[in-house]
């Protein structure tokens, strides 16, 4: 009698594991497709790589400031690297990822 009980539990656990694998695969595929949908413009990626002087796949404020030093906006004003960095650093970790760099910046809270 206990043997049937044990085999029943084992069967149920195998079924749960199979469904878990399917769910995990679905989540991973969904995440991957979302990343593909957010492909980065090659020009933006090249600019990011140029600014990332130490090639650590992140831009810090010093790198951004050095890149924009002496450069002007279309309206003739100097670039404010600190303001731009603060706007784009969505997770406030002191580094801009490629995705943060190409995004417009943080949304204003209403």
Automatic annotation (TrEMBL):
Cleaved signal peptide residues: 1-37
Domain of life: Bacteria
Name of the protein described by the UniProt record: EF-hand domain-containing protein
Residue intervals passing through the bilayer: none
Residues annotated as domain EF-hand: 39-74
A GO molecular-function descriptor: calcium ion binding
Keyword terms: Signal
């Amino acid at each position: 009698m206990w043997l049937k009980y044990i085999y029943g539990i084992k069967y149920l656990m195998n079924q749960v594991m199979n469904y878990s694998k399917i769910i995990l695969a679905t989540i991973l595929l969904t995440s991957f497709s979302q990343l593909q949908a957010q492909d980065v413009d090659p020009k933006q990626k090249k600019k990011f790589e140029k600014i990332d002087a130490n090639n650590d796949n992140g831009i810090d404020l010093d790198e951004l400031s050095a890149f924009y030093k002496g450069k002007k906006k279309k309206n003739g004003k100097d670039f404010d690297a600190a303001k731009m960095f603060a706007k784009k650093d969505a997770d406030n970790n002191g580094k801009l990822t490629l995705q943060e760099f190409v995004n417009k910046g943080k949304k204003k809270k209403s």
